Amino acid sequence: MTTTSPAAGGPLTGQRIVLMGGIGPGPFAALLLGDLGADVLRIDRPQDSGRPAGPLGRNQRSVTLDLKSAGDLQTALALLERADALIEGFRPGVMERLGLGPDAVLARNPRLAYGRMTGWGQTGPLAQAAGHDLNYIALSGALHAIGPAEAPVPPLNLVGDFGGGSLYLVMGLLSAMLNARITGQGQVVDCAMTEGSASLLTMFYAMHAGGRWGPRASNLIDGGAHFYNPFQCADGKWVSVGAIEPAFYALLREKLGLSDDPEFDNQNDRSRWPALKQRLAQVFAQRTRAQWCELLEGTDVCFAPVLDMEEAPLHPHNVARGSFVKMADGWQPAPAPRFSRTPNAVPRAGAAVGADTQQALQDWGVTP
Question: Which listed residue (133, 161, 222, 356) is catalytic?
Answer without folding.
Answer: 161
